[in-house]
Structure formats: C-alpha cells, structure tokens
Design brief:
Elements (H helix, E strand, L loop, with lengths): L15 H6 L6 H4 L16
Length: about 45
C-alpha cells in the first residue's frame, strides 16, 4: 500500500468520528489540493 502523505497533524478528539468532523469544511482543504484526509489513531501514551 502506498500513502502519499505530505502533511500530518495531530488532533485530540473524543472519538475517531469527532476527529474526522474537525476537517469538514476546513478552509485549508480549499487551499491545498488533496483528495481527502486519512484519520489514524496515535498509538502510545496520549499525555
């Protein structure tokens, strides 16, 4: 599998779905050309 990741951002949210909703209608999605956002969990201590 190939991941064409060019930018990453760490966000904190109550759920996976809540994290995905943070990007709905986000103005940066209009500035930077991309096909979408991949939301992945961060493994380890969330301190």
């Amino acid at each position: 599998m190939v991941n064409l990741l060019t930018v990453f951002m760490v966000v904190r949210a109550d759920s996976h779905e809540a994290a995905a909703r943070l990007f709905e209608g986000h103005p940066h999605m209009a500035i930077f050309p991309c096909d979408g956002v991949e939301v992945m969990p961060v493994l380890g201590d969330p301190a």
